Amino acid sequence: MASKKKVMTPADFDKAYEENEVQLRGIVWFVGCLSVLIVLVSVLMWFFLGQMGDYRRATQGPANPMALSERERLPDGPRLQSAPGFGVEGPNGFVNLELTQPAAEYLELKKQWDSMEKNGEKDPKTGAVIMLPIEEAKKRLLAAGVKARSDDAAKNLYDDSRRFYSESSAGRMESEIRR
After folding, report:
1. Is the pTM of this model over 0.70?
2. Count of domains forming the chain
């Protein structure tokens, strides 16, 4: 016959509850050591980052001559009104239009166009007149006494200017004449 052996289990069947065998001392040691390690690693990382910054500043060469300026890094227009760099390049320099009314760009350009139409424009490098006011240009043209050409070449030029490509020629030749 087999002998009865008592089997050891962590549960005690004589009690209505299970005893908690977790010891608070081990948990406190673990949390304490983990906290010390976290502080130690944080201090070491702060020290190493400082050393790397010093090394970078010590070995940094001159600024890159090909680096773009802040203005050159902006994308080409058009830009949103609230975007940095939104504005108009005018005769007196850059006009900043950030955070202004939506029509501010048009109004500024209209002001510049009206000024050019009224006063004309000169080339900034040479100082030569490149655009006259309309009234002065009319006076100069009439004073020059330009004669209209009336020879055969002028007649042919006039006729050619009235011709256009039609759909029926499939774009191969000028076939229709404007009326």
Report:
1. no
2. 2
* Residue-wise burial string across 12-27, b where 16 or more C-beta atoms lie within 10 A, e elsewhere: eeeeeeeeeeeeeeee
Residue 40 has pLDDT above 90, yes or no: yes
90/136 same-domain check: yes
Contact by Cβ (8 Å): 112, 91: yes
Q: Where in the sequence is the domain holding 102, given as residue range(s)?
A: 83-144
* Residues in CB range of 133: below 8 A, 6 or more apart: 117, 118, 119, 120
Q: Is residue 76 part of a domain?
A: no
- Is residue 111 included in any domain, yes or no? yes
In a domain, 13, yes or no: no
The residue ranking higher by pLDDT, 179 or 34, is: 34
Written in H, E and C, the secondary structure of the chain is: CCCCCCCCCCCCCCCCCCCCCCCHHHHHHHHHHHHHHHHHHHHHHHHHHHHHHHHHHHHCCCCCCCCCCHHHHCCCCCCCCCCCCCEEEECCEEEECCCCCCCHHHHHHHHHHHHHHHHCEECCCCCCEEECCHHHHHHHHHHHCCCCCCCHHHHHHHHHHHEEECCCCCCCCEEEECC
